[in-house]
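Recall that a protein's primary structure is simply its ordered list of amino acids. Everything else, from secondary elements to tertiary packing, is in principle encoded there. The following example makes that idea concrete.
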Amino acid sequence: SPGRGGPVICIGLLTGNSQPNALLKIRAAGIDPGLFDLGISAFGDNNASRDELYRDSIRKLESRYGRKVDAENVTLVGDTPLDIECAKSGGCGIVAVATGNYTSGQLAPLGPDLLCEKLPEAKAYLSAIMASG
């Protein structure tokens, strides 16, 4: 439990979209926005770059739990080269999903930790990360 210093698993959003637009897109994709902790999420209407979004979200986590968040314990899921670059800049893991405007062929050379065509393909990988947390 967080109070005892044990592992904490949080799922937030980190997006260049404004919060209202991000939630509209999440709902349109058939995903329940309630899955995401908006208290640790970062949105483009409050931050100028992906790197700032990442740092903002990490600050929120550290403030909430009163301890440092190690980048090696963070995994981003994204569908753009900017998402991959952000993860690498922040030192965290990255799962790239070729469901947006970029193909696997365009994302693969950027070296994501996992590349998949659809997010469900990442289930075993993400489950293993969460189990090791």
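The mean pLDDT is 89. The first strand starts at residue 14 and ends at 15.
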